[in-house]
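Slide 14.
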Amino acid sequence: MNTRWQRAIRWLHPGLRVKRWLVLTLVGVALAAIGVVLVLNLFAYELTVYSGGPLGASILGTAVIVLGLLLIAVSLRQVVRSVATALLPDENQLVDVMLMRRRRAMGPLVVTVGGGTGLSYLLRGLKKRTSNLTAIATVSDDGGSSGRLTREMSILNLPPGDIRNCLVALADEEPLMTQLLQYRFNGTSGGLEGHSLGNLLIAALTDITGDFELAVKETSRVLAIRGRVLPPTLQQVELCARTVSGAEVRGETNIVACPEPIDYVYLDPPAPPAVPDVLEAIADARIVVIGPGSTYTSVIPNLLVRGVAEALEHTSAMRIFVCNVMTQPGETDNFKASDHVATIERHVEAPVFDYVLVNTRRPDKAILERYSATGAQFVEPDVAVIARMGYIPVGGALLSDDDFARHDPNKLSDAIMRLAAEEAKTGL
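Slide 15: predicted structure.
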């Protein structure tokens, strides 16, 4: 039997509570048709006489049409209610959910490039505004659970940590699922100590499917995420750095812990091939957002993958760099916003963004003192210097209202969408 007919017949299965209303719909259609016939006096002359002549037949026909339409309306409403109750127990939210999903489905194509917690916070805000999201997350992390898994599992050649953070940020499930995938085994004995459950899930799916990219897609399907998450490359790479004195530091963990300032970073092997879907997503995007995230270890590694910087250079999308709120201890000590921009400039041959979005709101004194104890400082928004560098600086109060010096997902996403709307309006 044809698959289409099989699916149609399933509507008649017991328990769906739609058969009675479908039958009532057919009755309503039949009554409406009879009413039309009466109104048009298409029956035999005798019936017209019995109904009180042509005028009586028209009145009776109109009444029958109204009754038929009423039955159709009631039955269709009940069919929709039966389906909605199965999918969404609180039917009062149905219109809101449908409207919200429709608006997100019509949202712009947005590509984000970065990694770490900064990117995951951005995605939490963007997913409320568009479902057409592609997150490109760095795969150079060699520390913690991700590093251990890549060293211990021969089939897992890419660290899943940043990918996992993006998947969780885009998940459309209950908060408990998010907590579950972010759960870390601490205080336990054995091989699970320090591992994230989400990393283990991606590792297990990689082992099952034999492909890291497919494992990420399957995890996305399990989480019912809005959008998709892609690694920039499927080749195993190591992030390396050259310090100002010329010393070489290998591995992201060692780079972060290095006491000497970093001059530049590079990948080993150099210029790994990009995932084709990454280049296609950048080419088709309406908005490309680079950052936020650790400049040396989360943002730049993506740009060093072969073809990514070139795709960003030639895309017709609006290109935005989101500068960090605080400096990264051991990486960007004493950096102003312009220093972050200059650092990216030194690693690419051509500009990969036009706008620089900077936070202009300074955190409270108590928060600054707490961060200062760890070596982090507020990134000064020197917008005049950025403008002289040839970029368009856009300042705003993007800081969260909690006790942490970080971007507020909603404020940051609103600023990006507002900037895109203004550019579309002016035709720049």
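Speaker note: The chain has a mean pLDDT of 83.
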